[in-house]
Amino acid sequence: MDSREYSSRRSSRPRSPEQLRARALARDRREATRQRTRRIRRSVASLAAVLFSTAFLVIYVQLASGHDPALVANAKRAAATTTLNRGGKSSASETSGSSPASESSSGSTSSSGEESSSGAAAVTTSQS
User: Fold this and answer.
1) Do the Cβ atoms of 121 and 90 come closer than 8 Å?
2) What span, in angstroms and rounded, lies between the C-alpha atoms of 115 and 85?
3) Are 88 and 121 within 8 A, CB to CB?
4) Of the candidates 119, 125, 64, which has an alpha carbon nearest to the alpha carbon of residue 89?
5) Is the dihedral of CA 49, 50, 51, 52 positive or negative?
6) Ranges of the chain whose pLDDT falls below 70
7) Which residue, 111, 123, 11, 110, is CA-closest to 74?
8) 89: nearest Cα among 109, 73, 106, 76
């Protein structure tokens, strides 16, 4: 069947006023649903873009200003290890108590010549 035949057959039937109103109402509802869907999709997309940009900007500014949390944690760990190696006691070894095994391993040297400390407070590794 040709599309022209179908359209001419379809339009040849007269529509009643109720059918015309029903079709117009359905068309209006369909358009309102499309607009609502489009508005919701746009708002979700823009909200996601704003949240991503905000998070990226916060992290970027924090790192650019030199406040890197990972570097601060490494510096604290290095300071605790240095204090422990110099003969000072860390708060973790005071609260957990010391055992002969942990005392003998805390003064050992690694193959690279650095003193290493074992325990929950400070763990250092070296790569060659």
Assistant:
1) yes
2) 7
3) no
4) 119
5) positive
6) 1-12, 87-124, 126, 128
7) 123
8) 106
